[in-house]
Amino acid sequence: MNNDPIGVLDELVLLTVCVLDSDSYAYKIKKEIVQETSRSFSLASIHTILYRLENRGMLSSRMGGQTQQRGGRSKRLFSLTSKGISTIKDIQLARQALWNRIQTI
Amino acid sequence: MESDENVKEEAAIPKLASALLEWFCAPHWLTEIEGDLQEQYNENIEEKGILKAKIICLWEVIRFLRPHIIKKNKRLKSTGMFKNYFRVTFNNILNNKVNSTINILGLSIGIALCMVIMLYVSNELSYDQFHSNTGKIYRIALQNDPGNPTKGLARASYGMSEVLKDEFPAVETVARMTKLFNQEAVVQNGDKHFKEERLYFAEPSIFEVLDFTFIEGNPSTALVDPNTIVITERSALKYFGSLDVIGKTLNVNLNNMNVNYEVIGLLSDPPENTHFKYDLLVPLDDIFALINPRVVRSIKSWYTYNFWTYVKLNETSDAVQFEKDLTTIVDNYFPPTRKDIKIFIQPVEDIHLHSHLDREFEANNDIFYIRVLTSIAILVLVIACINFMNLTTARSIKRAKEVGIRKTLGAKRGQLIVQFLTESFIVTFVSILLALLFVAAFVGTIDQLAFINLEVSHLGIGSIILGLLFLNFAIGLLAGLYPAFILSALQSVKTLKGSFSKSLGSKNLRSGLVMVQMSVTVILLFGILTISNQLDFMRTKKLGFEKEQIVLLDVAGTSLSEIRQNFKEEQYQKFKSRVLQIPEVKNVTKQSRMVGAGASLRSIFFNGISDNEKEAVQFLYVGHDFASTYDLTFVEGRDFSTEYSTDTVFMYIVNEAAVTAYELEDQTIGRRIASGDNVTFPGQIVGVVKDFHFAPLHEQIEPLVVGLSNFPMQFVSLKIDTEQLQETLAQINAIYKEIEPNRPMDYSFLDKRLDDIYQFEATLEKVIVYFTGLAIFISCLGLFGMALYMAEQKTKEIAIRKVLGASVNNVVVSFNVHFVKLVLIANLIALPIGYYLLNDWLNGFAYRTSPDIGMFALVCLITIIITLFTVSYQSLRAGLSNPVDSLSCE
Known about the structure:
The complex is a heterodimer of chains A (105) and B (890).
Chain A: H1 8-20, H2 26-37, H3 43-55, E1 59-64, E2 75-80, H4 82-101
Helix pairs in contact in A: 1-2, 2-3
Chain B: H1 4-10, H2 15-24, H3 27-48, H4 50-63, H5 74-77, H6 79-95, H7 97-125, E1 137-143, H8 160-167, E2 171-178, E3 185-189, E4 192-196, E5 199-202, H9 206-209, E6 214-216, E7 228-232, H10 233-240, E8 249-254, E9 257-267, E10 280-283, H11 286-290, H12 293-300, E11 308-313, H13 319-325, H14 327-333, E12 342-347, H15 351-354, H16 367-394, H17 396-408, H18 413-450, H19 461-488, H20 492-497, H21 507-540, E13 550-554, H22 569-579, E14 585-591, E15 600-605, E16 615-622, H23 626-629, E17 634-637, E18 651-655, H24 656-661, E19 672-675, E20 681-689, E21 704-708, E22 715-720, H25 725-739, E23 747-749, H26 750-757, H27 759-793, H28 795-803, H29 808-842, H30 853-880, H31 883-887
Parallel strand pairs in B: 5-10, 7-9, 16-21, 18-20
Antiparallel strand pairs in B: 1-11, 1-12, 2-5, 2-11, 3-4, 3-8, 6-9, 7-10, 8-9, 13-22, 13-23, 14-22, 15-16, 15-19, 17-20, 18-21, 19-20
């Protein structure tokens, strides 16, 4: 397993980036996560996580996609790096293994 | 209405939010974060309404305050430099020990002095500010001598209170207080008995007008029932040893009557900063039970002024108009002979510094002295700051290379200014800490030296710290700004090449500053010489009467009133004849006021009993042998003496001033005159004495009438031979005890008592002597520093001069001449200013000295000597140095 552990929220963010594919930027990610988990997050925490994950080499980003809703400002669009992909895969595998060993729930 | 899209586009996020974000957010994140915020904001407006959207947006921005979102701005970056500034500052302090010592010591002494003065001044200014009604409380005072508007009486007539209450809508409450004339009460609980000077008879309304703190008891019932007493904590401890005093009994002996008082209230001790300090309060009406009805009538009449009267005006009233309206009281109530009286009001908070009337509760301070002290504080601080500026710029020679290198490495001028200001703030801070130590260490000593009370408690720690921070900032800026600008303006190329000293064109300015410093010193020096000169003059001036060998017994008789209870004539006569048997006692007499402390005004009819023309003249009641006890010189006539059977009550002696003023020349001896308002006491003049200073030297010798009487009087004076002082006093005491067993003998020496009159000036003298000493010391430090700097700068010049044949003498002289010139100019500037200022003070004395040319010369000489003394060490060192040392160093 990857020896660069990440938190649950980090994992959620990585997964969401994956889901949103080519249009994954902070605000959209936040909305998505809020919708899925019905918990509230501040924009700031999402931004912070994104920048941190990028620093750790799990995400890469590029600027683009200005829209009128944003007052013509461009977004930072994130995508998973191979390290990012293997990280969430590893987590998933570990989880699955554990789930499989549960007899009753 | 083009489309919805456009409206959305313009709904930008709130200005506050975007401004905040822009302020802290690192620029490379800014666009995307703003974009996200905008998107969310637009959606929220639709979903939750504009107000909520705004709040959410702002909240989101605040959440962005995280370490790696915040930009690493310049200000934060230069904290690193501050660390460096601190290090450089401390290195500098440690590397230039002499310089830093001069700098910090001078500054801290100056600041300490300033602090002490400020403590004192703030205490004086805080007098009576604590009353909850301050601003609305006034004291009613009378001006009873139209010829002398600065004099007056702090008390008013009894009836005034009712009239004020009934006829003046502006008045909300009136409160009267009095004391039993000049008598002190003797208060007793069991074997503990003390004389009480601060027992007052007061109306209950006093609690509504002034602020009192009741620990126990009820203000609304206190001072209402007769024979009840309210006492302070201090008195409670004094008499009962505990604070559990309610319901206990105190015995008060007043006017030879013993009355038991029930304690019904316990008050906190009055604060130091009030003009009215009390120990015991009893109901006002109780005083009338103590004196006989005839006297009560006199006390209650409009003729006599025995009641301190305070009014509290209501919110809407106009004090100026109220004061004007008071003339109606004179018109309607005062007897025809008193129509020239003027009634005026004094705000309670002004009494301590502005009121100098007769019958004050305590001797008041004078705003003049407060101003003098404040000026000294400021001047000393200026001297200390100038020192700092001078030494710092002078030292810039050494710092110039540092500036050059800093600039080469990219320091901006602003940064250098910040650096040097930081330095000056640090040095000031250290000095303030040191000054606090000084103050803490010496505050007790200062109390004793100056008899001033340094009270810190009323200031509160918060305002002290704020004050100190402000002081730190102000001095740091004042002292550091100039060096900061001069040093930061140096051009790096020049400083590194070594040709910077020309660009430091501040030599004239430095000389100017030294001159200002010396001028201030000169003014202070001149001041102290003038003041001590005047005080010496007063101490040694021949007063015209004997004061060295006089023992005063205060028998607490009364002067003006007709209360005849204590030390009655037969007691006095018995005492006198017994005491005269002691061989050391030369003469005995009695008098109503202390000779030298003033007399009282009384109506005199100089043209006999029939004539109704009367004059208000200074008047003393005395006993037989008055003139011979005090060695007064007779121009004509004789002393009152028991040898003359005619010398019973009412015979008069007048002074020369009276003879001239009232044209008594044609018939003096044997002239029939009378005193008292209704020709009460007819008699004749038996003698004329040379003028003597019966009143303090602040005042001219006025006409005086001395009247023989058998009234009990406040003072019995004995002229004694002081050889065997203690034994003589013991003998006198033994006789006194037999004759007056109820009251302890209260004796003092006249010369001491007279010195007390000039106590305030003497204190001022002391204070100014110390302060001036310190100011001169600080100036000397500055001079020393300057000389040090000059010697350093001129090392090569001096060496070359010496090589070319100059002697040590030449060098020293050329060095000193510069400073002597400065001092001379300073004298020229400062002496006239000093003269102008001091002349004003001297004019307050009727018998004054005048600074003469010798005094000016003396100040000049002293400053020159001090300067030479300070500078010569450096100049000698420079002169004696071996030229090889300074020339071969490269």
